[in-house]
Amino acid sequence: MSQIQEKSPQHCAKKKLININKHHKRLIYTFTTFILSILLLILLVWFILHPTKPEFALKEADIYQLGLSGSHLLNSSIQITLLSRNPNQKVGIYYDEIQVYASYKGQRITLDSSIPPFYQEQKDNNLLSMVLVANELPVDPSFAYEMGRDQMVGRLALDLKSNGQLRWKIGTWVSGRYMFIVNCVVVLPFGSSAPAGPLTSKQGTQCSTTV
After folding, report:
1. Which fold has domain 55-210?
2. Hey, where are the domains in the chain?
3. pLDDT of 131-175, one tens digit each?
4. For residues 106 and 156, what is the distance between their CA atoms, to the nearest angstrom?
5. What does the pLDDT read at residue 17?
6. Read out DSSP for 99-161?
């Protein structure tokens, strides 16, 4: 005579719950594996293509005005032309929110000037021209003394700085935003030996870029 085993409703509910949990775990495992595969593929493409940071050079700088009104209020007008180059063969660059200003001896001598966002193709070059100005900008009391010293030496050194955000474009994929900083140093003739008219430098200066 065979033994009859009866299962209670509570036992069946537990068994059904176990099956549901296993199904959910399988779905979570599959989804996680898919996401990790996509991330690994993106990282693999990233390291294979290895985007190189953009290159900048100062092509020309013209100072039309740089003088004090009163004891410590500066008026300035500087026109510059930057060359932007994308050295990558398979990676494009989106430039966002670019701000440029000039400084002298660690002091700002212009306000920020904005460069409109633009896209740069692979191995492409772009010329970026802008005017940096300031009207009655407060400066340190030592500014006039430093300018007088440089006038005696016969040359004036300025720092032209740019900061903004960029995004890499690989095929149809576009990365998140990365901060970048560009610093250019230009030396111009200054004083009695300088030619009449605006102070001008057309020698071309390679700039440092940090991403």
Report:
1. Immunoglobulin-like (2.60.40)
2. 8-50, 55-210
3. 999 999 999 989 999 999 999 999 999 999 999 999 999 888 898
4. 13
5. 52
6. EEEEEETTEE-S--EEEPPEEE-TT-EEEEEEEEEEEEEE--TTHHHHHHHHHHHTEEEEEEE
